[in-house]
Specification:
Layout: E1 8-11, E2 20-23, E3 29-37, H1 40-46, H2 55-66, E4 76-84, E5 89-94, E6 103-107, E7 110-114, H3 117-124, H4 131-139, E8 155-156, E9 161-166, E10 169-174, H5 189-208, E11 213-217, H6 222-235, E12 243-245, H7 256-265, E13 269-271, H8 277-284, H9 294-297, H10 300-309, E14 312-316, H11 332-338, H12 342-347, H13 353-368, H14 386-391, H15 405-415, H16 417-431, E15 435-437, H17 443-451, E16 458-459, E17 462-463, H18 465-470, H19 477-480, H20 488-512, H21 524-532, H22 540-551
Parallel strand pairs: 1-7, 11-12, 11-14, 12-13, 14-15
Antiparallel strand pairs: 2-3, 3-4, 4-5, 5-9, 6-7, 6-8, 9-10, 16-17
Helix pairs in contact: 4-22, 5-6, 5-17, 11-13, 20-21
């Protein structure tokens, strides 16, 4: 990081920026704010401000009151840049789960920031990629540090982090540490269920309080349907009726009963748009190094385009709950085995008798093993040139710690898969005028989930037990009691379309292979052959092929 010679910051967001700029009193401070705040009245009261204060005024006052500790006092989705000329420092903050993206770089003594990578690439005029990051991303397996992007000069402020730049030195720290407090709770299960329902209902209410027309995901899944069940009563009678958006319709899926049941909860208007073949091929031509991952947009881009046409400003989604409040109980076998609670351990197995006990003990032993510090980095199936792979320091694969439920939940949070998708949806959604909101990822709801006793996440063979009980009486039983998360027909349909698109674009890649600058990283003969004969579903090489095509500058 170079030394800042001037306390200046510049918003480089592509297109219309989501950041609001305000000056502090006496010109001693400057703020750039992208925020949606919850419990605003309580925050305003703490800051001695009127309830009418806007988000920018609240956040500026919060910085003056609490400084770098302000995030602990905030609820909602936000990215904040604060320039404090009095102390000679620049501060940046990002909400707990990363609902508001924030990327940054320092150039010529100016702190450059953006809600997307593309804006910074254009401002900096750079094209050189980090070979370590590109190898890590294309090989897959969650090897990339959350701060890194494809470009060496551009960094991401990770979710739940703050950054301070002072005297030319940058200090990154993790402000959100939800696992630092004890997990135990003495409350009765009935009291906990009531508390969980109340917190989630408040999270939904906070996110539908808007004049914008609202869209809502309808998938038939447990998480998304819970948001339907809690959200729709609050949306009935809205000036602009809400619209339900699905990735598939009930007639086109073997998960039909669940989707039909969800539609009974959904808005009167339901749409399931799909990308046509031309749009799908255009998606592959998008530059992954500057824009969201094509994989995260394969279904959702069609929803965003259709939502924009219908004037949707807010999309309510149930994404992400299974890593917090609707967690499946991973790690519970190990906990029971370690405590020698063999009757509880045996109850987790669908089999009975000695065979069931043996299976449960085996699962417990498997979970009880500490995560390996180093897993094999051999990129089996990758289309990158072997000599290129050998030339970079490829980081090891991330491992999930399943020695307890809390360890597993913490590992999943650190893995960043949830944040990666919501970040991509946020960037792409902004281009279509859409703000995504995730009640299940509300900080109050997540922190409550992380405090729950482990045995509540799974009862016997029923995974996600606590959340199912929270939704008892609110969801149709077809959805509430469904234990499978598989969406076989949708997945197979998606893979079939992917395979068709690979075949359709193979000739173009062959014809242009000598002009594609990024072809130098790949064994193009193997890559083109695989495009013409795509791997089958379940074959890991299909993922390698997909990531290679995302990266190529077609």
């Amino acid at each position: 990081m170079c030394v800042l010679t001037m306390l200046q910051a510049k918003d480089c967001s592509e297109g219309k920026s989501p950041f609001i700029r305000i000056e502090g009193p006496g010109g001693q401070s400057e703020f750039f704010i992208d925020a949606r705040l919850d419990e605003r009245s309580a925050l305003a009261h703490k800051l001695n401000l009127p309830d009418s204060a806007n988000n920018a005024e609240l956040l500026a006052a919060a910085f003056f009151r609490w400084g770098s500790e302000l995030c602990s006092e905030l609820l909602g989705d936000y990215a904040l840049i604060a320039i404090d000329r009095k102390s000679g420092s620049i501060h940046a903050f990002r909400d707990h789960i990363g609902a508001r993206p924030l990327f940054y770089a320092v150039s010529g003594g100016i702190f450059l920031f953006s809600s997307d990578i593309a804006g910074l690439v254009t401002t900096l005029g750079i094209s050189t990629l980090s070979e370590e990051v590109l190898a890590s991303e294309i090989v897959g397996g969650r090897r990339t540090d959350a701060t890194r992007t494809f470009y060496q000069q551009i960094r991401r402020l990770p979710a739940g982090h703050r950054l301070e730049v002072r005297n030319g030195e940058a200090k990154l720290s993790h402000w959100w540490q939800p696992f630092s407090s004890p997990a135990a709770s003495s409350s009765s299960i009935e009291a906990l269920l009531d508390e969980g329902r109340d917190l989630l209902d408040r999270a939904v209410a906070d996110r539908v309080g808007t004049d914008e027309r609202i869209g809502i995901h309808v998938t038939g899944g447990l998480d998304s349907s819970s948001i339907l069940a809690l959200g729709m009563p609050r949306l009935r009678g809205a000036a602009a009726p809400p619209i339900g958006f699905g990735w598939q319709g009930p007639a086109a899926t073997d998960e039909g009963p669940r989707v039909e049941a969800a539609l009974a909860l959904a808005p009167d208007i339901f749409r399931a748009p799909q990308l046509d073949d031309v749009q799908l091929l255009d998606l592959w031509r998008q530059d992954w190094t500057r824009h969201p991952s094509q994989w995260n947009l394969l279904h959702e881009l069609a929803v965003q385009q259709d939502a924009e046409r219908h004037g949707i400003g807010v999309m309510l989604s149930g994404w992400g709950g299974d890593e917090a409040i609707s967690f499946n109980g991973r790690g519970l076998h190990a906990e029971y085995l370690r405590a020698m609670e063999f009757s509880k351990l045996a109850s987790l197995s669908p089999r009975r008798g000695p065979a069931g006990m043996a299976a449960a003990i085996k699962a417990g032993l498997r979970e009880a093993l500490p995560p390996k510090d180093k897993q094999s980095s051999a990129p089996v199936g990758s289309f990158l040139k072997r000599e290129f792979i050998a030339s970079v320091d490829l980081p090891e694969r991330a491992a999930i710690d399943s020695r307890s439920c809390r360890d597993a939940m913490q590992s999943l949070l650190q893995l960043g898969s949830v944040t990666a998708r919501i970040e991509d949806w946020a960037i792409s959604g902004r281009r279509h005028g859409i703000d995504y909101r995730y009640p299940l990822l509300d900080r109050r709801v997540m922190e409550f989930a992380y405090r729950l006793p482990s045995e509540h996440f799974r009862q016997g063979t029923t995974k996600r037990w606590f959340f199912r009980e929270m939704m008892r009486g609110l969801l149709p039983e077809e959805i509430r009691s469904e234990t499978s998360k598989l969406e076989d027909l949708r997945t197979r349909s998606l893979i079939a379309r992917l395979q068709q698109s690979f075949v359709a674009i193979a000739d173009e890649v062959e014809d242009r292979r000598r002009t594609l600058k990024r072809a130098e990283f790949f064994d193009m003969d193997r890559l083109i052959e695989a495009m013409r004969r795509p791997p089958a579903i379940g074959n890991p090489q299909l993922g390698h092929l997909r990531r290679a095509l995302q990266f190529l500058d077609i």
